[in-house]
Amino acid sequence: MAATFKGGFHIRDYKELTKDIQTSALPDCDVHIFPLRQHIGAPLKALVKIGDKVNVGQKIADSKEFVSAPVHSSVSGTVTDIKPYFHDSGTMVEAIFVENDKQYTISGDVYPRDYKKMNREKILSVIREAGIVGMGGAGFPTHIKLSPKTNVDYIIVNGAECEPYITSDHRYMLENADDIIYGLKVAMKVLDLDNGYIGVELNKKNGIEALKNSTEFNSGIHIIELKTKYPQGAEKQLIKAVTGRNVPAGKLPADVGAVVINIATAVAIANSFKTGMPAIEKNVTVSGDAVNRPANFRVRTGIPVSFLIEHAGGVKSTPEKVISGGPMMGITQYNIDYPVTKTTSSVLLMTKAPKTYDADAACIRCGKCVEHCPMRLMPLKLSAAAKKDDLEMAARYNILECIECGLCSYICPANKNLLQYIRMIKPEVMKKKREENMRNGK
């Protein structure tokens, strides 16, 4: 039987639109835009000024804070501006504009490295300086994730890609399987592990086969076949499926001896050693029923999303919704000129919103949201607490354990948008908890 977790739901995935389309390169883009916020952690400061010349792979922004990851230029050219610009979070973020000279001159800092001859600290330094983060969308700096305070015995590469429409990781499996294995081996050395695991949903059987073909005999790398359902790729659910271990409330994966990285992150790690190139390129899926030619592109960071849409044949008709990410956890955009960052996995253009919610709908007490919640929560109670602004009730029903997968809203037969209310109150509960911890000296 395929490995899985309790709860969740099989959603029609629409991956047939792009899963068999080979990743293609894009033509030159005149201007690349590099937001200084492409990770979870401390904000970055620009290391360049207007008029400076930059090269491919050159570090252009960084921070001295531990929880940070630098940003590099994906093109060579001239810095023309540094100003706030559109970001896929829906906010304006300080960004560096580089006019592409289309020569792609590579920085002298880019050169291959042999991780087998390095110690743990040096490998982590290379990963940090390459600006590698959780490139599936989370954006947490990878050098920190690979530096757990407790001993771990599982390193897992997340190849579930459970969100509908997205096939960018699937294409990595088919086209860059060796790099995925290489990146995992680097992580295994950092964590001093003899075994590594890659979890892949069964709707990617050719991806599973490609990874198995790239795995050396007795190399200690295991391909784990996962049941196809959402959210199989959520970190805690993946750990449960692969290891059988439950991550307790308020704890991190490392607390149960596991570390999880994304497929694209593993590829980026491989590139940072095999060629020395930092995280300046990734696969991005452009899909949805409003786009003329759904596609997978190999994209240099900084390219405006409008450029991707143009080279996917433009739109059939004006989309009702443009989403950065998947339809379940992605963020709806009000502007298509935001740039591709390290965490951009897909752009979806929908002629009609996936689901229409009824703000005044009454709960019919069917229990479906509870039955399918992957975190075993009671979304109806959390939503009720949010409506009453009852922080104590929300905390009592473990709102901070919600992974915001959106399954409760998707599954609700009354069309209640439970997640919307949960997202409204969750930050307030987090703030209150931080204040209580400070008062208690924690």
Overall pLDDT confidence: 94
Q: What shape does the CA trace take?
A: globular
Kindly report the spatial arrangement of strands forming the biggest sheet: 1-14-13-17-15-16
Distance between the termini: 44 Å
* Spans where pLDDT lies below 50 across 5 or more residues: none
List SSEs in N-to-C order: EEEEEEEEHHEHHEHEHEHEEHEEEHHHHH
Structural class: alpha/beta
Strand content: 15-25%
By DSSP, the count of extended strands is 17
Number of helices: 13
Description:
There is one protein chain. This protein is α/β, with parallel strands linked by helices and 442 residues long. 27% of the residues lie in helices and 19% in strands. α10 packs across α13 (418-439). The longest helix is centred in the last third of the chain and has 22 residues, at 418-439. 49% of the residues are buried.
Summary keywords:
six-stranded mixed beta sheet, 13 helices, four-stranded antiparallel beta sheet, 19% strand, alpha/beta, 442 residues, 17 strands
In a few lines, what is going on in this structure?
With 442 residues, this protein is an alpha/beta fold. Helix content is 27%, strand content 19%. The chain has helices spanning 120-129, 142-145, 168-175, 177-190, 205-214, 235-243, 263-274, 305-311, 368-372, 379-387, 391-396, 407-411, 418-439; strands at residues 24-25, 31-35, 45-46, 53-54, 59-62, 71-72, 77-86, 92-100, 154-159, 196-201, 221-226, 258-262, 281-287, 295-300, 321-324, 331-332, 346-350.
